[in-house]
Design goal:
Shape of chain B: flat
Helix content of chain A: 40-55%
Largest sheet of chain B: none
Number of domains of chain A: 2
Strand content of chain B: under 5%
Mean pLDDT of chain A: 85
Helix content of chain B: over 70%
Distance between the termini of chain B: 44 Å
Number of helices of chain A: 10
CATH class of chain B: Mainly Alpha
CATH architecture of the largest domain in chain A: 3-Layer(aba) Sandwich
Strand order of the largest sheet of chain A: 4-1-5-12-6
Structural class of chain A: alpha/beta
InterPro entries (chain B): AA_ABC_transptr_permease_3TM (IPR010065), ArtM/GltK/GlnP/TcyL/YhdX-like (IPR043429), MetI-like (IPR000515), MetI-like_sf (IPR035906)
Oligomer: heterodimer
Membrane topology (chain B): Multi-pass membrane protein
Number of helices of chain B: 10
Subcellular location (chain B): Cell inner membrane; Cell membrane
Low-confidence stretches of chain B: none
Low-confidence stretches of chain A: 12-21
Main location (chain B): membrane
Largest interface: A-B, 22 and 16 residues
Radius of gyration of chain B: 22 Å
Keywords (chain B): Amino-acid transport, Cell inner membrane, Cell membrane, Membrane, Transmembrane, Transmembrane helix, Transport
């Protein structure tokens, strides 16, 4: 009996060992939907967006299959660590705080953040004095949340949302005075909105680096260095052969 | 105060997650949760007494609407009710210009309205059951003394019904406390909201949620002891003689 136990334990150990070192031929991506235009569903229910298309193109380049698994933002890193999926490609900004937990690929796009408000809001510059007492909307656990919490936490009333959609809904409902978002997302959800007129307040923001990091990267579990390297190579290839520019143009126009 | 701060700073030294800042969030969360639960329970209780009397009325035109109300609010999840009241109302034409908007604009009041209506529905049914269970003999005795219907209700039925309802109502209070955890979906920074914030910022689910679970446990125990005390006082006459 004891021998049998030892043998089977050994078997499990060997199986676990090979699982750790395995070469991925199928990668599951965690993604927080919707976050237009980076990841969202078409009216037909099909998952699409810049991240999705670029991710699929990279997988094709590497020669593996991939799958997208939806996960709300505030649990997205714990989900990766608990192996619900193998990587996160969901507009995640590379910064030092996250580097302590996950391994990042090279940045694949570097979008700024920006303040969005209705045309009617009488604020030119988002200084702490100007936003005193206002209600600011952010998505919970994002770098915009961290930035706003640290910079405006004492003067303004911060509302945190689980999804960017809920926040836009409350903006349309006039519950929020101003929101702080990734620029492409704010552009596609607010500036292009037909309900109300919105404007960008102040400059697009990419500094300080300790909050805004080095652009969006794919996050992996720290030991999957080989996998991250394969994605880095694929990204470089796609940038060289023009596929990247093609996808970029489709979502961000000629900017 | 300074000493307290120093003591706290010493205690938290080297702790990345539980800084004075995050403890501040938990504290605001505790205040919000207590306000929300306490207010909705008080208002719900005040609403539930007349509703329960109406619900046990013999006139169908009184009891039926109340039955429909309790049926709807007990038959749907609180989360759905909260979503409808918070996100739903903004689609009512012209609501932003109405006199109700300053109240509905804040996340606190829609949550309070949803919680109040929900707990009032449950409490109404608890009280109705207790009123229905009044022994017939007591009512007949009151009649024999020449008490009017309202006097009978006030002096005989309600006092004993409240006593009978007490244990079940204690459970409702605890359920309400736990149900209030959904307030964070409408941006309220309640206890769970604070925990979700800390979780999302430090990616530390265990620390964030176990800490908040401990706070909920303490609150629950406080409520349990309050009701145990009340039961001891108010239900003393039901105890066997010579017991403690």
């Amino acid at each position: 009996m004891k021998k049998l136990l030892t043998v089977s334990l050994l078997g499990v150990a060997i199986a676990a060992g090979t699982a750790q070192a395995r070469d991925y031929d199928h990668v599951r991506f965690g993604v927080d939907v919707p976050y237009e235009p980076m990841e969202y569903r078409t009216p037909e229910g099909e998952l699409t967006g810049f991240d999705i298309e670029l991710g699929n193109a990279m997988c094709e380049e590497i020669g593996i299959t991939c799958e997208w698994i939806e996960q709300e933002w505030d649990g997205i890193i714990p989900g990766l660590l608990s192996r619900k999926y193998d990587a996160i490609m969901s507009s995640m900004t590379i910064n030092d705080e996250r580097r302590q937990t996950v391994l990042f690929s090279d940045p694949y796009i570097t979008p700024p953040s920006a303040w969005f408000a209705p045309e009617t809001l009488d604020v030119e510059e988002p200084s702490t004095e100007a936003l005193d007492g206002m209600s600011i909307g952010v998505q919970r656990g994002t770098l915009q949340d961290n930035y706003v919490t640290d910079m405006y936490g004492d003067v303004a009333d911060i509302s945190r949302y689980s999804t960017a959609d809920d926040m836009v809904l409350d903006m349309e409902a006039e519950r929020l005075d101003i929101v702080f978002l990734d620029f492409p997302v704010g552009k596609s959800t607010l500036l292009d909105s037909e309900e109300r007129q919105y404007k960008v307040v102040g400059e697009r923001i990419t500094e300080p680096k300790e909050y805004f990091g080095d652009g969006f990267g794919i996050a992996f579990r720290p030991r999957d260095e080989a996998l991250a390297e394969r994605f880095n190579e694929a990204l470089a290839t796609l940038k060289e052969d023009g596929t990247y520019d093609e996808i970029y143009a489709r979502y961000f126009g000629g900017e | 105060m300074d000493q307290l701060n120093q003591w706290l700073a010493g205690l938290l030294e080297g702790n990345v997650i539980f800084t004075p800042q995050t403890l501040g969030y938990y504290w605001t969360g505790l205040v919000t949760t207590s306000q929300l639960v306490f207010l909705s329970l008080i208002i719900g209780l005040v609403l539930a007494v007349p509703l329960a009397i109406g619900r046990s009325s013999r006139h169908r035109w009184v009891s039926l609407p109340i039955y429909v109300y309790t049926y709807v609010f007990r038959g749907t999840p609180l989360l759905i009710q909260l979503y409808i009241i918070y996100y739903g109302v903004v689609f009512v034409e012209g609501i932003q210009d109405s006199m109700f908007w300053p109240i509905l604009k804040e996340a606190f009041y829609p949550a309070l309205i949803a919680f109040t209506l929900n707990t009032a529905a449950y409490t109404t049914e608890i009280f109705r059951g207790a009123i229905k269970a009044t022994p017939r003999g007591e009512i007949e005795a009151a009649r024999a003394y020449g008490m009017s219907q309202s006097l009978t209700m006030r002096r005989i039925v309600l006092p004993s019904a409240f006593r009978r309802a007490l244990p079940a109502y204690g459970n409702e209070v605890i359920f309400m406390l736990h149900a209030s955890a959904i307030a964070s979906v409408v941006t309220l920074m309640d206890l769970t909201g604070a925990a979700r914030f800390v979780y999302a910022r430090f990616y530390a689910p265990f620390e964030a949620f176990i800490f908040v679970a401990a706070i909920y446990l303490c609150l629950t125990f406080a409520i349990l002891y309050l009701f145990r005390y009340l039961e001891k006082r108010l239900l003393a006459h039901l105890k066997p003689l010579g017991g403690n």
